[in-house]
Amino acid sequence: MLGPQLNEVILKIYQNCRDIPVHDFKDWAMTTVQSVIAFDSGLWANAQNVFSEAFNSVHLFHLGWDVIENYTREIGVENDLLAQAAIANPGRTMIMDEVMPYDEFTTIPMYLNHCRHFGLEQALCTCHVSSITHIPTAISFFRSDHDRPFSESDRRAKEILVPHMVEAMRINLFASLLGTEARQGEALAFCDARGVLYETTPIFNALVTAVCPDWRGPRLEPPCTPMDGVSTVRWSLNGLTFEASPCRDLFLVRAKRENVLERLSPRQLAVAEMLARGKQYKDIGRALGISPSTVTKHVNQIHERLEIRKREELVDLFNSKLH
Questions:
Q1: Domain end point (choices 210, 228, 257)
Q2: What CATH number is attached to the domain comprising 189?
Q3: Are residues 195 and 272 in the same domain?
Q4: Does residue 245 contact residue 251 with C-beta atoms inside 8 Å?
Q5: Which of 166, 208, 270, 282 has its CA 20 to 30 A from that of 25?
Q6: Domain of life here (predicted)?
């Protein structure tokens, strides 16, 4: 029975995922999975749009990069029947026999021009897609012996394991790249320079979907701007503020609900605070050492920046943001 063994593997992956270096994690995870599913090589890819665009990241397990080069040149996803089946059935692990008989598979160009050259005789392919961000992950296992097909038990085991592998990778990425910098409950995400997401925290998903109910990822919502890999980029959207800072090869995005009072300069904030406490213009001017006309100028700027018209609205803002 694979049940207890699967549970042990899942537990091991979660227990160790925070301690494995990020660049070693996928190799380590697939090696760990080999204790319950025998396979010779594998692929773990995060894609912008499930194979239909360039992979954001591709990790090859016991394979050379020429596999990807040949696949792109000779096959392409449109001719990859197993990949197409996995895309059409996210979450379900697909086995070649479900797509076509193996004897027939060995006669098509995909096998003749690609699979047999790289020892990809048997395959298990799974496409996992986040239900919220739509960040897609493809994980495939391969065997080089055409007489050793994957079993239905192998297929079911991989189908159970893949969501845990993906979640453990998310935990590993944040733990490895941020360490103790990440506070519990922060709204964080990793993206590339185009704003394409790699991983997100649950609180990030909750914040973004609260203000953008139709957001489906895997790109950040506009007006996210392209990033140059050096500068920190900030933008606002529907009451949220985002800050994207370079972090290794990616960008760390922090999201939070916008505090509109941060739009004010220190002097404007001082005026606004006293105004919200019911102070008169002359009292504010006396306290800050400025004339009543200057106070009036600041008040007009405060109204403009905060998009309010009345003192009562300012009081409400202070009550909601500062208390």
A1: 257
A2: 3.40.1840.10
A3: no
A4: yes
A5: 208
A6: Bacteria
- N-to-C CA span, the chain: 57
- Contact in structure between 204 and 188 (CB atoms under 8 Å): yes
CA distance 219 to 192: 10
For tokens 């027939």, the residue is 104
User: Residue 24: which residues within 8 A CB-CB, separation 6 or more?
Assistant: none
- What pTM does this model have? 0.76
Whether residue 152 contacts residue 159, with contact meaning beta carbons closer than 8 Å, is answered with no
What's 116's DSSP letter? Answer: G
Number of domains in the chain: 3
How confident is the model over 120-179, as pLDDT tens digits? 999 999 999 987 788 889 999 999 999 999 999 999 999 999 999 999 999 998 888 787
- CB-based contact 74:113 (threshold 8 Å): yes
Token pair listed for 311? 């003192």
3-state secondary structure of 282: helix
Read off the CATH number of the domain in which 14 is found.
3.30.450.80
Q: How far apart are CA 309 and CA 49, in angstroms?
A: 45
**pLDDT tens column, 268-296:** 888 888 888 888 888 888 988 999 899 89
**Shared-domain flag, residues 166 and 30:** yes
Backbone angles phi, psi at 17, to 5 degrees: -65, -25
Count of CB atoms situated within 10 Å of the CB of 293: 10
Cβ atoms of residues 286 and 247 within 8 Å? no
- Structural domain for 314, as ranges: 260-321
Q: Are residues 196 and 103 in the same domain?
A: no
Tokens encoding 249: 């090869």
Max Cα-Cα span within the chain: 91
- Cα–Cα distance for residue pair 234/229, rounded to 1 Å: 14
Q: Which of 231, 257, 283 is the last residue of a domain?
A: 257
The DSSP bridge pattern shows strands 136-143 and 41-47 to be antiparallel
**CB 127, CB 50: distance < 8 Å:** yes
